[in-house]
Amino acid sequence: MSLPSGHASVATGTLVGTRAIPVEVQVDVGSGLPSFSIVGLGDTAVLEARERVRSAIRARGFEFPNARVVVNLAPAPLRKHGTGFDLPIAIGILVATKQVPAQLIAQSALVGELSLTGEVGTIPGMLAHALGARDAGLELITARIGIGQLRVVPDLTARGIGDLRQILAVEQDCPPVGVATRVSRIPIPDLAEVVGHESAKRALEISAAGGHNLLMVGPPGSGKTMLARRLGPLLPPLDADERLDAALVHSVAGLDESDVLAGVRPFRAPHHSASIAGLVGGGVPPRPGEVSLAHTGVLFLDEMPEFGPSTLQALRQPLEDGNVVLVRAEGRIRYPAQFALVGAANPCPCGFDGDPVRRCTCGEAVVSRYRARIGGPLHDRIDIHLRVDRIDPDRLVRGEVGESTEAVRQRVLEARQRAFARDCSVAARLSGGALVSACRLTAGASRTLSDSARMHHLSGRGVTRVMRVSRTIADLAASDRVDRVHILQAMSLRQMSA
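The structure corresponding to this sequence follows.
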């Protein structure tokens, strides 16, 4: 018995950056030689859906039409990526052949990958698809597995199905509104475990309170990496909006977003062999890079001079703008990238330039070339420069215990509360008139800042960053105005000792 011919239209979407752009899957089953074609600028994964869909339909007891099947993905000029079109294409064929009632999907958007046996699987970017369906006023139909992660999206109506046959069920599986209770699996390193390094701990506190970028330079084994990994726990937990923003980037990248949804700020530490695309985003199809995966958190670049010079310079625009804009032939793609940069570097190739005990074996020209790998413009965008030297072994043997992460974090939270009550932002994001108004420099602070800027040949950006750090120091001191002592402390943190 031949199946009836017909047309069907199914709503779905394709990812462009962190947004799901609406796509209409138009299916026509008509007379002609049996064939199955998909048009509309789909990539290889989309075109391969023909085999998955054919097998899935038959495996679940439906009949695949012995007719001419044409699937158009509209709008045709928009490039489509991924396996999420499997489910809407299959359901579109079943609706067109009257095997599934059209009213079951009339107000729905469908996204999901199909196995050859008809099970529905999840795909990267489900949070983006959930937001797209909600904003369009549609119910989302997708894989039952993983639908619990969509609880972070408020006002979402969703139905999870395990296989194609379950599309005929009318009951809905709607995730409750709001963020579910989650527990992070990431161990939290304690600042109390760090022996000595009082100035470095103070720098971490200032960085956490104001969202400032930080560069630590010192010999191997001095504790730079250990200190950097303790910055994240000093930061306040993510609020609801930040959780959704950060989880959205992780979802689009195909990564587990559970820890972000638990309120833990991202901590990304890419290897120095990372490419430009890996660090700032790109590829085919485009995917977010490490700077976007660190959004709302920390990006740690260990052995910073070992990164490619062009790779490091690609950080300049994200550090200034808080986002990454990739320009491709099909258009512009924007990813959020508001993070605190923490770099760690040896002072020279052998690592012992300036060390009071071990002699450096590098020549002066070698040291200069090595330090220049980071580049002046990137140096200028780093608020705090810090020398980290090795501590006395006797202090380690004695097992000294320093101030705990919780104690320092409490001061960070109080400083941030003052900043948000005044400016609705941390100091690192202030500029122009808003920064001048927030600082309220005393007469002594103004003179000190002007004199220091001339003495150290600071650029306009450098002056701005000194003002930002001094505003954070004042917040930690519960001071409404930035005074001379705050400027001097900020300048001392910017002028790294050799």
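The mean pLDDT is 91.
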